[in-house]
Write a structure and sequence with these properties.
heterodimer; A: about 70 residues; mainly alpha; Arc Repressor Mutant, subunit A; 4 helices; elongated; B: about 270 residues; alpha+beta; Gyrase A, domain 2; RNA Polymerase Alpha Subunit, Chain A, domain 2; four-stranded antiparallel beta sheet; 5 helices; about 20% helix; about 35% strand; flat; binds iron/sulfur cluster; binds zinc ion
């Protein structure tokens, strides 16, 4: 859905690093170098960012601002 | 017991402890993980949520946000005068209210407003959810102290690990400077300097013994020091690494004392 707050394996906070990672990789930088710079040394934390897909952006297409009463 | 600090950063500390046994090293590690209290959001009142994410998902994300902890001004709920009902000595309220105008916004942890200016999210850049125009998120969250034994979100440490101190020795008479070990070592420990093989940054060695395997038997030996451990403590941001280590020592001491007192009372 949206980037998980912590690494599933070790518990390091990864969510606050995702936007920088995404924009720098989009600018053509090497993901490995960006991850090193962000201080994610363990492969458990690195895969959190590398393997993430923001599905929330697809959900946003169907967003309404109505209050839907619980079913 | 002797402690040498090797490297200290804002969120992590690397140190060497000498003259202790494995049981003690592991007791320290486990105390940090399960007995050292830290703050986290534990109860969330969702007043309005029209975002695309369910209430439960938002509450779960809020719980995982590390909160800067002030161990001196807050009590664990079970030790508090209110007997765990929740009062200003054991609970802190954080509120969040966002309604974007005509564009999509990402709601970050920095938008949480705390009742106590000291109790704030350790990082303000954690995305909580995304809101489309005119969607609303109004939340009241209650942070309290807890321990890792109860829920991992209360752990003040992300990782705490220790390893043996590596001792690398090379039998120079068996070495023909083929550089195989230099190439295979993942930590770049081995180095050929002119006509001798030398080692550098030996504390980084992971004791993987890949270098031993590529060379003839007995040329390289990887050993470890007895009764010395290299610790690496990584904080989530809720407590400083120094506080984590010193408070852990205090907690461990009182627990050992309690066990001793109990054992003595049986006599
Ligand atoms: S692999 Fe063995 S022989 Fe080759 S450089 Fe290393 S120690 Fe010397
Ligand atoms: S044991 Fe592994 S890390 Fe240590 S020097 Fe040998 S190859 Fe390098
Ligand atoms: Zn990790
Ligand atoms: Zn109380």
């Amino acid at each position: 859905m949206i980037i998980p707050v912590r690494c599933f394996t070790c518990g390091k906070v990864v969510a606050d690093k995702y936007e920088q990672f995404k924009s720098e990789v989009q600018q053509g930088e090497d993901p490995a170098a960006v991850l090193d710079r962000l201080g994610l040394q363990r492969y458990c934390c690195r895969r959190m960012l590398l393997a993430h897909i923001d599905i929330i952006d697809s959900f946003m297409a169907f967003a309404t601002s109505d209050v839907v009463e619980g079913v | 017991m002797e402690i040498t600090i090797i490297n200290k950063q804002d969120d992590s500390i690397h140190f060497l402890v000498e003259d202790v046994d494995v049981a003690f090293a592991n007791a320290i590690r486990r105390t940090m993980l399960t007995k050292l209290p830290a703050m986290a959001i534990d109860e969330v009142l969702i007043l309005e949520n029209t975002s695309v994410m369910y209430d439960e998902m938002i509450a779960q994300r809020l719980g995982l946000i590390p909160i800067v902890t002030d161990l001196d001004s807050y009590n664990l709920p079970q030790d508090c005068e209110c007997e765990g009902k929740g009062c200003s000595l054991c609970q802190c309220t954080l509120t969040l209210e966002v309604e974007p105008e005509d564009e999509e916004v990402v709601v970050y942890s920095r938008s949480l407003t705390s009742q106590d200016p000291k109790i704030v999210p350790a990082s303000g850049n954690i995305p909580i959810t995304k809101l489309a125009p005119h969607q609303r998120l109004i939340i009241e969250a209650y942070a309290r102290l807890g321990t890792g034994a109860e829920n991992a979100k209360f752990q003040p440490v992300a990782t705490v690990a220790y390893k043996y101190v590596p001792v690398i020795s090379v039998d120079k008479s068996k070495c023909n400077l083929c550089e195989e070990c230099v190439k295979i070592c993942p930590k770049n420990i081995m180095k050929v300097d002119g006509s001798t093989l030398s080692t550098q940054n030996t504390l980084d060695c992971s004791l993987c013994e890949a270098c031993v395997d590529v060379c003839e038997p007995g040329a390289i030996t990887i050993d470890s020091k007895k009764n010395a451990f290299l610790f690496k403590v990584e904080s989530t941001g809720s407590l400083s690494p120094e506080t984590i280590v010193s408070k852990t020592a205090e907690i461990l001491k009182t627990r050992i004392q309690a066990a001793l007192d109990y054992a003595n009372s049986l006599r």
